[in-house]
Amino acid sequence: MPKNTGWTTTSVPTDLAERIESFVNSKEGKKLGYTSKTGFIADALREKLDELTGESKKQQTKLEDKMNEMNNEIITIQKMLIEKLENNITKKTKSFKSSHFQVISKENDHFILKDNIKNKIADVAIQKGELFCQLCEENNCVHVGFLFSLPDVYEKLEKKLTKTV
User: Fold this and answer.
1) Taking all residues of the chain, what is their mean pLDDT, rounded to a whole number?
2) Where are the domains of the chain?
3) How far is residue 49 CA from its own chain's centroid?
4) Reduced to 3 DSSP states, what percent helix, strand and coil does the chain have, rounded to the nearest 5?
5) Radius of gyration over alpha carbons of the chain, in Å?
6) How confident is the model at residue 1 (pLDDT cuts 50, 70, 90)?
7) Of residues 136, 86, 92, 134, the one with CA closest to residue 110
8) 161: pLDDT confidence band, cut at 50, 70 and 90?
9) Residue 36: which residues within 8 A CB-CB, separation 6 or more?
10) Distance from the CA of 111 to the CA of which of 8, 20, 147, 165 falls in 20 to 30 A?
């Protein structure tokens, strides 16, 4: 009694079998993962049968649907992460502004800040179109940076520069 291997034998024209053998042994055939005529023929028949029965289109549609679903999930996760990061940045910025510095006075081109870290008063003024900190004696310090982060100060400086140009 023959052993049941799950395979059956079918004859193939000799010239076709030789072409298949040649392809399977070629660099391209090996690159595609073919190791035998049997594997190649089974793959070709499966592909042709799927094409004729519409099975490949159904599988392609299922795959595309799954990919779209995954893409939507990725976009949702991405939006959640961006929102969470923006909220954290906003919270940290607000707490930094409120805990480190306090605006005591804003008059024309002159700002007085209380630096709660150094426990000092910083006198910042607009000079030659730039903010300049008298405490640090420079135009690029934390006090100047803090004032730039305040929208009304930024707008005031922007207007001042526009008028002088």
Assistant:
1) 84
2) 14-53, 97-164
3) 41
4) 60, 15, 25
5) 37
6) low
7) 134
8) low
9) 24
10) 165
